[in-house]
Amino acid sequence: MRPNPTPPLYYAPLVPVAAAFTLGILFDRYLVVALKSWLVMATLMLLGASLASRRKQPIIPWLLLAFTALGGAHHNQQCQYVAPGNVARILTEKPMLVRARGMLCEDWTVRPKTRENPLVSQPRTESSLAVLELHALQKEGDWIPHDGKVRLTVPGRLEEIRVGDEVELLGWMNLPVTPANPGEWDYSRWLRDQGISAEMHIRKAQDLITRLNPGGFSFDRLLARIRHYGQEVLQHRIGENEYGLSAALLLGQNNALPAADWDHYVRTGVIHVLAISGQHLVILGIFIRFLLRLARLDYRRAALIVALLLFIYAMVTGGRPSAMRAAAMVMMGCLGILLGKRVFPANTFALAWIVVLILNPGDLFNSGFQLSFLAVAVLIWGIPYWSPTPAIDPLQQLIEESEPRLLRFSRFLFREMRLAYKTTLYISVSLIPLIIYWQNLISLSGLLIGPPVILLSTIALLAGFGLLFDNLLGGLFSGICTFLLKWSLALANDLVLFADKLTWGCWYTGPLPIGCVILFYTLLVGWLIWLQWRNFPLPRIFAQLKSGHFLKTLLVTMAIGFLWPQRDFEKDELRIEFISVGHGGCTLVELPDGRTLLYDTGSLAGPDIVQRHVAPFLWSRGIRRIDEVILSHADLDHFNGLPALLDRFAIGQITTTPSFADKNAPGVKEVLRVLETRGMNLRAIHRPMTWKSGDVSFQVLHPPAEGPPGIENVRSLVLLLEHQGHHFLFTGDIEKVGLDQVLSQPISPIDVLMSPHHGSVTANPTKLFDWAKPKLVVVNNSESGFSSKMKNDREILTWSTGTAGLITIRSHRSGVVAETFRTGERRVIASGSP
């Protein structure tokens, strides 16, 4: 009789605990259970386990349910619950001037100024970010106790105030702003997951921040001092140009790297080399172990020191999920060495999972957490199956040992390169659906440059750690370490820039439905479980998920996701959406025949509005192609997003006014250069051109073929749309003599009017509204003096994208309906056809 096999979870008891804890977090996230309910449930489950133990009954189900309740309670307390004294209870999204006291609990990180860009009209200046633990707010001369963490933003650098200092400051405080358009990344939710309740902006840091008491010694202050030491060494040795990349790689200072440089690494699929992760900790561990061997420390003491220093390094670099995951796994391995016990990968993986979620349960919904743990899981259990180590043939080994050293080294190098590329391929393929879900892109160039960039970053890490350590001893080897660090970083950066220029290197895909992502990773995780425990009762489909089947599964899942219809529009409906982009303009027109148009795409905030606002919204609508982009005139805040839009979407036609290309401005020249490299030409339209697209009629009211003279605003494109007897007027920045020419033409009453020049009072005279008789006025800006005046002086409904967020207009036979995204308003603008 065969003995019963060992239960699959016998050597990994933390796996079901991690699963139960995670399940509780998910329940609380999407069902929003009260904190008291979770605590009551946990208490009852523990009582049930106690009773079951006394009756000699299984207690594991009771304990797992208790861990589920504890996971839900932990997430609720950290990410959902707002305490009575929390400052979030008295704030709104509108900034208010407050005087506050608190203690700096996170050190300053410097965000560099933006580089010169012809498409940016207001470059961002250098600023510093930190987190304040709030103690009190001043009201009518009295200090009222309040708590909560506040994210501080100050101009320039503020080096006098450090972690642990108690400060008093004056600035503008508000709740984090929620998304203005569907599909956007929820910045306010991310801050809440980090335990941050509010934001505070200070305009003159030197005058408005006063240190009340210097902080004493603390662990956070020690970490800050170590971080400052590293920053000073790198700034002194590396120089300002390469500092950002070296600080991001060695110290986790992601803000030190300009956003444009960061995007190069994202698009080429090698951003993981800059994320503090297992690679960094393994390299540092090897470096520390080498030094300890020179000191002749025994193996167990060395393991303890390595574990302690790696934990400190993970905390110095910010304690991000990937770093804490790697630190927990390394510390588990070191603990096994100390105890002389075997460490099982599944148990180690589960422990790291639990540790990271205990530190911050909100990280479960963070892309870094998901990508980090998934890559490690595939590396541990998938790669050995897909790319097994070949058996050693003794005869072949003997032959190779008799060959010249150069030939043997060449064979070794080839084998390692092949293994590196195969590993990169399998991990990259495994991450594709998740990367598409989070970043909406597929990077093929990462398969090409991934291994050499990892090799160069490894050299940079060794040289960087050597530089930081050697500087403590007087800098004997600082020269060679600095040379190796700068050389390896420069070469790696050149590879990234080269790959970023490859036309096939990066594809923006749009979103993959969450259902397809869940399906793919359910199969992948089930297969990894089956590999670990072959006797585990799982469907036979997981046993068939070999290399070829895995690729087929990926392709089928992605095909279903991309081919599944995501756009929802009625064939008799015209939909107009005023996208919230700050001071600028971007209006989507979805025609009943399925064609899509954009009227303007730009903002004073810069071309980043496409990445942050426009593209996410278009993808959320299922739009991957834009048939025509119409630019009203040659002001940056109306067209500077066009190059970024061309990178992400197929665009059929670019249309503008006759004078657009004549403006002698760097931004216009840059856009024309981009269009020329893509083989696209501008189509000019002018009064009195008209055309139809299905049931929608277009009429150009301004400008004429030539003139009028003056600034670009007076030649702004004024476009009238008519559908089912309803009229919609787009005005751009029309004003002065151009506006007078428009008002001289007869027009039917307008249902929805775009306020000229972002609601400027001078561009919105009374005669405009007497002429247009609008039922709704939309202002492409924050709340303005004009919109307030309209509310007070006239009974005209006025909405601004700055406060209302996305404004959607639906026109059909039954009438015109308008609704806002952020405030949730809905109005009937017109009933039936006129």
Number of strands: 25
Q: What kind of assembly state do the chains in view correspond to?
A: single chain
Q: Please write the CATH class name of the largest domain.
A: Alpha Beta
CATH architecture name of the largest domain: 4-Layer Sandwich
What is the rounded Rg?
Answer: 30 Å
Number of discrete domains = 5
Count of separate DSSP helical elements = 27
Q: What is the fold-level CATH name, i.e. the topology of the largest domain?
A: Metallo-beta-lactamase, Chain A
Main sheet, how many strands, which sense, barrel?
9 strands, mixed
Structural class: alpha+beta
Share of residues in strands: 15-25%
Low-confidence stretches: none
Query: Can you say what the CATH homologous superfamily of the largest domain is?
Result: Ribonuclease Z/Hydroxyacylglutathione hydrolase-like
Overall shape: it is globular
The overall pLDDT, averaged over residues, is 87
Largest beta sheet: what is the strand line-up? Answer: 15-14-13-12-11-10-23-24-25
Q: Give the termini distance in whole angstroms.
A: 88 Å
Helix content: 40-55%
Topology:
Elements: H1 14-31, H2 35-54, H3 60-80, E1 96-111, E2 127-139, E3 142-145, E4 149-155, E5 166-174, H4 187-193, E6 196-201, H5 205-208, E7 209-213, H6 219-238, H7 240-251, H8 259-267, H9 278-294, H10 299-316, H11 321-339, H12 345-359, H13 367-386, H14 394-401, H15 405-439, E8 441-443, H16 445-472, H17 478-500, E9 506-508, H18 514-532, H19 547-563, E10 574-578, E11 584-590, E12 596-603, H20 608-620, E13 625-630, H21 636-639, H22 642-648, E14 650-656, H23 666-677, E15 682-684, E16 690-693, E17 696-702, E18 718-723, E19 726-730, H24 736-743, E20 752-754, H25 766-772, E21 776-779, H26 785-793, E22 797-800, H27 801-804, E23 807-812, E24 815-820, E25 826-831
Parallel strand pairs: 4-6, 12-13, 13-14, 14-15, 19-20, 20-21, 21-22
Antiparallel strand pairs: 1-2, 1-5, 2-3, 2-4, 5-6, 5-7, 8-9, 10-11, 10-23, 11-12, 16-17, 17-18, 18-19, 23-24, 24-25
Helix pairs in contact: 1-3, 1-12, 2-3, 6-7, 9-10, 9-11, 9-16, 10-11, 11-12, 13-15, 15-16, 15-18, 16-17, 18-19, 20-22
